[in-house]
Design a protein that fits this description.
This protein is mainly α. The protein is built from three helices and two strands. The chain has a two-stranded parallel sheet.
């Protein structure tokens, strides 16, 4: 499991930025807020790969190839 670890403010900002691109599918603000309110990050027992930046994602991608 790949867990992209970003704060809620970043998620909200990126949603708004995506609205200007008609190729991006929208998630309604009410749905997004419901998901953010109930989301629990993966626990240590779930063996998730935690990624906090594009650089970290690039490293994970290279190792997995």
């Amino acid at each position: 499991m790949l867990y992209v670890d970003v704060d809620d403010a970043t998620v909200r900002r990126r949603r708004v930025e995506n609205l200007v691109d008609p190729r991006r599918r929208d998630v309604g603000v009410d749905v997004l807020e419901e998901h953010l309110a109930g989301f629990e990050p993966p626990g240590d027992d779930e063996s998730a790969v935690r990624v906090r930046s594009a650089d970290e994602l690039d490293q994970v991608w290279r190792v997995g190839r």
